[in-house]
Structure formats: structure tokens, C-alpha cells
Write a structure and sequence with these properties.
- The protein is mainly alpha-helical.
- The protein folds into two domains: 99 residues, no CATH class; 66 residues, Serine Threonine Protein Phosphatase 5, Tetratricopeptide repeat, CATH 1.25.40.10.
- It contains eight helices and two strands.
- Strands 1-2 form a two-stranded antiparallel ribbon.
- The protein is elongated, with a radius of gyration of 22 Å.
Length: 185
């Protein structure tokens, strides 16, 4: 396994520990109603579609699909400036959900790494030998692997800290989205 692969495996750990990005907004209690409104929003045309989208947004203002549908409906009504604003909001929300998905996926990768003795042993061998697949590691690479190993040890000693760090990362992502939405809208 080369250094790039080794660090790619461990990259998720750094994302969770070092990056900050919100807890996914909960769906409205009226999920059936939200789904119905989004269905109308996307299936209908013109004012009827816009009305469905607006009702869906009232139920869940964080629905990227509803904002996308609103943008599409406004465009068909030749209300281009409003359509552009709705499209921008839909794109921001989609990026936010992508961030959530990435963070949660990385969290799972880290959890898997914590239980993968073979991968941890590879990191230990690379640190002790100063090489990966016969290729020497430079000082920066060695330092990075040592930091990763220390983080793995800390997480193994306190597994609940992984969830706490993930929640913190998600909360910061949500906060940043809210800041961006306030700045732009």
C-alpha cells in the first residue's frame, strides 16, 4: 500500500477531527404532506406548481427539491430574478446535504478504521520503518502518520468522542449554511 492510499484511508479521520462543516434538519412531522406538495410542485406547471412548491417550503424551508421546483416554476412564469434566487438557494441546500453525507460517510470510515487492526498495523509499520512499499517517507509524511496514529489511539480510548466530534462538525456546517443564507437572502 503506497503513502497516498494510506493517507486516503486515514483522511476521513482528519475530516472528522479537523474540519468543521449541521445536523440534517429534521423533516416536518407532516412528511406525507411534504411529499404531496413536492410531488405537485414538480408535476404541475405555472402558478399551480409554484403554489405547491411554496407550500412545501412552508413545511420544510430546507428542502432543496422544493426550492429547485420553485425555481423551475418561476422560470416558466418568466420571473427570472426570483427563479435565480430560488435556484441559488436550492444549490446551497444541495451542497449542505452533500456536506452532511460526506461527513457522515467519513465518520463511518473512521469507525471502520478504528476496528481494522490490519490497517492500524500498516500505519504502525510505516511509522516505525519510515517507509511504505519500500518508498521512504519524508519528515512531513512521517509526522502526519504519527498524528493520525495518535488520533486513532485517542478515539479507541474514548469511542464516544467520535460521535461528539461528528456532531460538532455537523453543527458547524449547519451554522455556516445559516450564515450564508442570511448573507445572501
Amino acid at each position: 500500500m503506497n503513502y497516498q492510499k494510506l493517507t486516503a484511508i486515514c483522511f476521513g479521520l482528519l475530516i472528522i477531527i479537523g474540519l468543521s462543516c449541521g445536523v440534517a434538519p429534521s423533516l416536518a412531522a407532516e412528511t406525507g404532506t411534504l411529499e404531496n406538495e413536492i410531488e405537485q410542485c414538480l408535476a404541475l406547471e405555472g402558478e399551480a406548481a409554484l403554489a405547491g412548491c411554496d407550500r412545501a417550503i412552508e413545511i420544510d424551508p430546507s428542502s432543496a427539491i422544493a426550492w429547485y421546483g420553485r425555481a423551475r416554476a418561476l422560470e416558466t412564469l418568466n420571473r427570472t430574478p426570483e427563479a435565480t434566487t430560488a435556484d441559488t438557494r436550492a444549490q446551497l441546500l444541495a451542497q449542505y446535504y452533500n456536506c452532511l453525507s460526506t461527513v457522515l460517510g467519513r465518520r463511518q470510515e473512521v469507525a471502520n478504521l478504528l476496528n481494522d487492526e490490519e490497517r492500524i498495523a500498516e500505519i504502525d509499520r510505516a511509522i516505525s520503518s519510515g517507509e511504505v512499499d519500500g518508498e521512504p517517507l519524508n519528515d512531513e509524511q512521517k509526522q502526519r502518520l504519527q498524528e493520525i496514529r495518535e488520533q486513532i489511539l485517542a478515539l479507541q480510548q474514548d469511542a464516544s468522542s467520535l460521535d461528539a466530534k461528528t456532531k460538532n462538525t455537523l453543527d458547524q456546517c449547519r451554522t455556516r449554511l445559516q450564515e450564508i443564507l442570511q448573507e445572501r437572502f
